[in-house]
Design the sequence.
């Protein structure tokens, strides 16, 4: 039977270790994404007295990419962070919250070994054929949002050789909750202050966070045509925000001109947890993003449906004052990733 778009599926899982050859997917990705086979074919040039090309070729490089996209959810965003920042285990709260915390690496003493990363096995295709790659890591990801929409995630998972496979059978579709942009809050403070001190109310219109994770494939002569390992070479992150043209945006333009360090907190809350507690830090599902840095630029005053707005780009960098660069926190109810 020919392939049917409605029968496509994307299945992922966390591998036991890099380089495994038997790991299979354990859950559905609740979004979109089809595997791109990135093997490279070369037809070498030669002078052999024949006009035009000759069918001599070789494959010098193998690999695959999986562009994951869709609503960011409290339950599946941890896959992106586990495979794009570092592997962490959640801590518990007085409520039923499982608290996952990822701090961006800054020094040689931080988790920067390839063994500090979680690797993805990915299966994707339709009712006609499935493909698989293993030892995948998140090379870059973005989080974008605007009022009235769910926060959107896109991530590029780079993996080893793509092969034909049969989908892992019997997986259940996981329950997930979309992170709603309009449930978000924006806080901006000097980097010396505690993140989340000063909320900027009625001004946060949209955002786009772009992160190059710093994990890079290392290709060596190692007896195989795909990458030999993965290495941390340093992250790059920037945040674009659109504000109302109000007192908050004017204050941030002043901080931009003075090149004052700032810490930005983006906090998004979801539904109540199944068990709450008056002494708990988290009683609802939560995503918190703390970013340290300085404003890189501001655009001229713009307009949206007759409303004056201002857009700025925030360069994320290590703060010697706070001794931090960026931190991501998710509170959900998953002790492990399915």
Sequence:
């Amino acid at each position: 039977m020919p392939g049917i778009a409605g029968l496509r599926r994307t299945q992922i899982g966390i591998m036991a270790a890099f380089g495994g050859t038997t790991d299979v997917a354990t859950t559905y990705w609740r979004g979109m994404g089809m595997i791109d086979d990135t093997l490279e074919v070369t037809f070498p040039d030669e002078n052999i007295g024949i006009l035009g090309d000759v069918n001599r070729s070789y494959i010098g490089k193998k690999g695959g990419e999986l562009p994951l996209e869709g609503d960011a959810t409290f339950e599946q965003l941890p896959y992106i962070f586990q495979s794009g920042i570092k592997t962490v285990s959640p801590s518990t709260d007085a409520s039923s919250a499982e608290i996952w915390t990822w701090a961006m690496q800054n020094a040689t003493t931080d988790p920067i070994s390839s063994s500090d990363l979680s690797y993805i096995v990915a299966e994707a295709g339709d009712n006609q054929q499935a493909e698989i790659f293993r030892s995948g890591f998140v090379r870059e990801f973005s989080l974008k949002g605007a009022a009235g929409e769910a926060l959107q995630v896109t991530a590029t998972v780079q993996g080893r050789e793509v092969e034909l496979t049969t989908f892992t059978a019997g997986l259940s579709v996981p329950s997930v909750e979309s992170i709603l942009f309009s449930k978000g809050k924006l806080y901006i403070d000097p980097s010396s202050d505690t993140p989340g001190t000063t909320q900027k109310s009625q001004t946060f219109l949209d955002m786009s966070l772009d992160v190059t994770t710093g994990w890079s494939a290392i290709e060596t002569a190692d007896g195989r045509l795909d990458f030999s390992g993965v290495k941390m070479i340093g992250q790059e992150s920037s945040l674009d925000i659109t504000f109302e043209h109000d007192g908050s945006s004017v204050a941030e333009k002043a901080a931009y001109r003075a090149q004052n360090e700032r810490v930005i907190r983006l906090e998004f809350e979801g539904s109540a947890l199944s068990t709450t507690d008056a002494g708990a830090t988290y009683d609802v599902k939560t995503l918190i993003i703390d970013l340290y840095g300085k404003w890189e630029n501001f655009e001229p005053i713009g307009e949206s449906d007759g409303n004056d707005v201002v857009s700025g780009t925030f360069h994320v960098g290590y703060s010697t004052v706070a001794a931090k660069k960026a931190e991501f926190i998710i509170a959900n109810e998953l002790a492990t990733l399915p």
User: Anything to note?
Assistant: The helical segments are 77-84, 247-258. Residues 244 and 309 are 5 Å apart (CA to CA). The first strand starts at residue 9 and ends at 14. Residues 247-258 form the longest helix (12 residues).
